[in-house]
Amino acid sequence: MLPTDVRNPDYFHKVVDCQWACPAHTPVPEYIRLIAAGRYDDAYMVNWQSNVFPGVLGRTCDRPCEPACRRGRVEEEPVAICRLKRVAADNKGNVSARMPKPASSTNGKRIALVGAGPASLTVARDLAPLGYEVTVFDEFKQGGGMIRSQIPKFRLPEEIIDEEVGYILDLGVKTEFGKRVDSLKGLIDEGYDAIFVGTGAPRGRDLDIPGRQVAAANIHIGIDWLSSVSFGHITSIGRRVIVLGGGNTAMDCCRSSRRLGGDDVKVIVRSGFEEMKASPWEKSDAIHEDIPIINFLVPKEFTHQDGKLTGVVFEKVKAEYDEKGRRKLVNAGEPDIHHECDDVLVAVGQENSFPWIERDIGLEFDRWDMPVVDETTFRSTHPKVYFGGDSAFGPKNIIWAVAHGHQAAISIDLACRGEELTNRPPPKTWLNSQKMGIHEWSYDNDISNDLRYIVPHQDKKIALADIKTEVELGFDLKQAFAEAQRCFNCDVQTVFTEDACIECDACVDICPTDCITFTDNAPEDELRTHLSAPALNLTQDLYVSTDLKTGRVMVKDEDVCLHCGLCAERCPTGAWDMQRFLLDMAKAGSACSKS
Amino acid sequence: MTFLPKPTMHHPELPTNTLGYTRRDYEGAVSTLCAGCGHDSISAAIVRACYELDLPPHRIAKLSGIGCSSKTPTYFLGNSHGFNSVHGRMPSVLTGANLANRDLIYLGVSGDGDSASIGLGQFAHAMRRGVNMVYIVENNGVYGLTKGQFSATSDRGAKSKKGVENNDEAIDLVSMAIQLGATFVARSFSGDKTQLVPLIQAALEHQGAAFIDCISPCVAFNNHVGSTKSFDYVREHNEAVNYLDVITGRDEITVDYAPGSVEIVKQHDGSLLRLRKLAGDYDITSRAQAMGFLQTHAEAGEIVTGLLYVDPEPLDMHHYLKTAKAPLNGMTETDLCPGSAALEKLNASLR
User: Fold this and answer.
1) What is the pLDDT of residues A340-387, one digit of tens each?
2) Contact A504 B4 (CB under 8 A)
3) What is the ipTM of this complex?
4) CA separation for the pair B298, B296 (Å, rounded)
5) Which fold has domain A99-202+352-416?
6) B38 touching A, CB under 8 A?
7) Any idea what DSSP says for residue A141?
8) B323-344 pLDDT, tens digit each
9) Which tens digit of pLDDT belongs to each residue from A177-200?
């Protein structure tokens, strides 16, 4: 194998599994250390610079970081990264003084943002402090988009949204709220230098089966119903409720129903329980609220009497797999089942919808009627129109919208300055030794054996009584500290200096997870099999040195390294050093970056 | 040293041996020796050897004297019996323990000061009595705990860290062990576990006095240019005679080496030593030839490593003394005190 080039920022970035997995590449271990140190303001700002909505995401993120967490590979459960983020948001002081200031003068460029959801607000935050005149349009009277309209208040209290949307609007962003944009052409004609479309995936999919029209009064589209609940237009539902669908929207629907008068609420899903799209924790939260999830039932017909819904008939199916491993649901050969109910909530997916975009303005749509958008620059085929969030590539999560927003802002900034969109700024990186003494490091390298802490929940009776009562209470500071200590500090890298190594084997002997081997070099697939412990996780890199004095090389398997620093402590010559690698993704300008 | 205990978390795929233990279960407390000490590598080799041989930790007794080397039993086999004796007196204490309980596996750990200076007489007599043990000398050529004075195994002409030359002749414990009647004699290097681990395993299987002289560089006081026990010097002058594989139990014997390059030695307990010969065309079961070979190579300034001499049919102290087969703690009061009639009989026989 060729020696590893650790100067390539991707190499060490990849070792920080959580940061690498995060679409916005938030420096997770950095803020977890700050939480452990009780520096909640600093932890919040590290988050805010990167993901813009720490308080919101600390409650609602889909957490792509957690399945990636190295701790999940060594122990069982990953660090509760998401809920630690909430700890920073909940316990910070007043951080308004640390926010960027509105630009003192304008640069004369006008940007229109359509939709006031997370993607648009991220673009606004990145561009407004640079002097851009940013205007946000939204049909609702307040900013936040789906964060406000679709996430139930028992998961995300209103004041969190107000606060974090407020930080952005306070940057001198103009708002045109309560105003629906009906024509993109009209907007273009107003002479904006760039237009960003962040309108989400606003249309809930319907279920066109017999009885749908007759019983329409008691059959609701999930996301529309949630938003009516959010804005207080709907305050009750029938006693018996069936929720159709297996995603997070279905989970929000069933749990909201429990709080609005539904005491016999069930979720019925086509697929198997395991394949449901909902996050595992959302499923378990629903089950905890006495909501059964019944699987392998396909809705066939809405039954009704005198025009009023009486229930749903389901066909029983089972999963069959073809030779390519693709799943097919086939009739299980059992009689159909009828479940009685008073109301049905349909949460079987959501779609994009662009009736307001004219098709003759040079903006190309593909055969699924989605705009053609560049995956790096987020520019459409119209040079002034950009897309991001769910409206770009279909429904994803808030954190993806934020990541899209950052990239679109970079593109808009480049375009307005007359530069090439492909000329994207590189991330900023820092690599600093953490050595304080012979065996002292500026990070806590003692490995905690604690198992993942469970976030305390509100008493079920109290939680179900009011739809605005937050269910999760968040970690208290003691739990937060203990949970933060579970983090391995994967951003503190093991950095090897060949010239200093005397091949004494001390690092090999001390390594608790058998990561290090001194051996003859070989091609990667061969090398992976004859290490101290075979390196079978091919998604994790091998760190290979240049040739050492004996002609061998040092090979470190990054897979299960605890970053405990014992290799460096036991190294007599300082060939191993623990160095903190910080990576700050580039953003438009530097107003919202680490300085 | 490090302030922290080694994390108990281990590789998720860490294998277990037939007893259900992982290699980590054979470790001890975290080392307090200097970072990079060769002794820590030897500890790691002992851990691996015992793990791979499926030895029950509670059937091993580790004994040592005084010195850096003699501190190491704390750092391996944390679940075995241990005895840290007086300086140079490990062999006596071990001999006593062995007489009382012959069923345990005895591992004596000592250093060049402990065995070649203050304990030289003890070392000699344990070897010549044929005490069934593994005697490991962790040999770094200096007194590390007192800041690096030459020890008795330091070569004439070797330079200290400050540049002072050693004028005294070195004691070669390997030659002495062969001459004094040890039945398994080897030399190895802490920086070569491929050679060291099987040697320790073979010695543990050997049912007699087994001696391993293990060169173990002292990174603090004896790893400089001019030292003859530094990592660089030993690697440059290492004349590895052979590498071995220890085959125990039902492992299949496959010989896939060039004819003449492999020799199989069957030990008394049934274990097989497969020697991959690299150099040294002599019969390793011959004391005279081994001695000659060592002398020639010492003159050439080479450090000969590998299994140098072995008696496949060793006899041990218990055999010579005709002791009882059972350990003392396994005997009942009637076994130990046969009564007045037996005493009368004995006394009568002496009249």
Assistant:
1) 999 999 999 998 889 999 999 999 999 989 999 999 999 999 999 999
2) no
3) 0.91
4) 6
5) FAD/NAD(P)-binding domain (3.50.50)
6) yes
7) S
8) 999 999 999 998 889 899 999 9
9) 999 999 999 999 999 999 999 999
CB contact under 8 A, B41 and A562: no
Structure tokens at B114: 């402990």
Name residue, tokens 């002599």. Answer: B282
Query: Would you call B35 and A572 a contact, using CB atoms and an 8 Å cutoff?
Result: yes
A477-484 and A81-91 are packed helices; what angle lies between their axes, rounded to 10 degrees? 140
The fold of the A204-348 domain, in CATH, is FAD/NAD(P)-binding domain (3.50.50)
Mean pLDDT of A576-593: 88
Give domain limits for chain A.
Answer: 99-202+352-416, 204-348
Residue A180: how many other CB atoms lie within 10 Å: 11
CA B332 to chain centroid, in Å, comes to: 34
Least reliable range by pLDDT among A315-329, A379-393, A517-531, B106-120? A315-329
**What pLDDT score was predicted for residue B250?**
47
Which residues, 6 or more positions from B232, have their beta carbon under 8 angstroms from its beta carbon? Answer: A502, A549, B225
Q: Is A447 on the interface with B (CB under 8 A)?
A: yes
The domains spanning A99-202+352-416 and A204-348 adopt the same CATH topology: yes
Helices (H), chain B: 38-52, 68-71, 90-100, 112-116, 120-129, 173-180, 193-205, 231-237, 287-299, 317-321, 333-336, 340-350
Q: Would the CB atoms of A514 and B14 count as touching at under 8 Å?
A: yes
Domains of chain B, first to last: 23-321 (3.40.50.970)
Q: Please give the C-alpha separations between residue A275 and each of A245, A314, A324, A337, in angstroms, as whole numbers.
A: 12, 19, 17, 22
User: pLDDT digits over A235-274, tens only?
Assistant: 999 999 999 999 999 999 999 999 999 999 999 999 999 9
The amino acid that residue A595 corresponds to is S
- Closest by CA to A70, choosing from A488, A583, A528, A522, is A488
Contacts of B24 in chain A (CB under 8 A): 512
Tell me: pLDDT of B155 over 50.
yes
Q: How far is residue A387's CA from residue A504's CA, in Å, rounded to a whole number?
A: 56
Contact B39, B135 (CB under 8 A): no
β partners of residue B133: B209
CB A107 within 8 A of CB A161: no
Cα(A287)–Cα(A246) distance, integer angstroms: 13
What angle do the packed helices A40-51 and A28-36 form, to 10 degrees? 160
What is the predicted pLDDT for the residue at A412? 97
